[in-house]
Design goal:
By secondary structure, the protein is of the alpha/beta class. The protein has 7 helices and 10 strands. α3 runs parallel beside α4. The relative contact order is 0.11.
């Protein structure tokens, strides 16, 4: 519990207030090596130069292939490529991550409560609040698409973090509205934090897996598979009651749900 509290405090200080004590300490540790390298290079270089220290990269790996955003963007983009849907719509996923993955091989429509003011090849953008059907573009009614994704976004609905209106039932309303856009036989790709159910205001919600499955059942969606990222590991198991209960007892994992629409909601 203490460790989790410290991690949360560090996140708040770093991301929200620009204070990163751990990064400061790591930078000070690497500073002597940087100064030695700079003095050696300066003696051998006669051209123009300026100082721009990069203190942390020497000890880092060549890239991060363990994070949940990495895995969700890669795996769900591959699913969509393999399925080859007629029309794919995304709701609220990262433009510089998953959306760019998909736009590299097909057109994708993006609905987001925040504006996107850059023209991106392969991306058709609509500003819309998925908690309210009346903000969707006119053609986007029931059965609008045969493929829809919402990655690491539903947990924010109704918490005001991204300028959306406060709504304690925002995730429930948003889920139902997204499900209605998918025509029978189509797929809905959803990733959300799962674990002990709670609201961490105003960052996000964490859902018990059973809550997501109940929303899906009420919206005419059947679970095709569940992929879980926990502790940097990707797990694919049959969604038995025992496994779902185990996931619901954990503090935090990322659940990637692939649903198939079975009937009109």
């Amino acid at each position: 519990m203490i460790r989790r509290s410290l991690i949360r405090l560090q996140w708040v200080l770093d991301v929200q207030f620009g204070l990163a004590p751990d990064r400061l300490l790591r930078g000070l540790r690497h500073l002597p090596r940087f100064l030695r390298d700079w003095l050696r290079f300066r003696r051998a270089w006669s051209g123009p130069w300026r100082l721009m220290p990069c203190l942390h990269d020497r000890s880092a790996e060549g890239g991060d292939a363990r994070g949940e955003y990495f895995w969700q963007d890669l795996l769900i983009a591959r699913e969509i490529h393999a399925a080859g849907p007629e029309r794919h719509v995304d709701v609220g996923s990262r433009i510089d991550g998953f959306v760019a993955h998909v736009a590299s091989f097909r057109e994708i429509e993006v609905f987001d409560v925040r504006p996107v003011q850059v023209d991106v090849p392969g991306v058709v953008f609509w500003q819309a609040d998925l908690m309210r059907r009346d903000t969707l573009p006119g053609a986007a009614g029931e059965g609008y698409c045969d493929s829809l994704s919402c990655l690491h976004a539903l947990e924010h609905f109704g918490l005001g973090r991204y300028g959306d209106p406060l709504d304690p039932r925002g995730a429930e309303r948003g889920f139902g509205n997204m499900a209605s856009l998918v025509r029978p036989g189509g797929r809905f790709y959803l990733s959300v934090p799962i674990g002990r159910e709670r609201v961490e205001f105003n960052a996000n919600r964490v859902f018990a897996p059973g809550t997501i499955l109940a929303l899906a059942e009420a919206s005419g969606l059947a679970l095709e598979r569940l992929i879980v990222v926990h502790g940097g590991q990707v797990m694919r198991k049959t969604a038995t009651e025992a496994w779902l209960n185990h996931l619901a007892a954990l503090d935090y994992s990322l659940g990637m749900f692939v649903f198939v629409k079975t009937w009109r909601s």
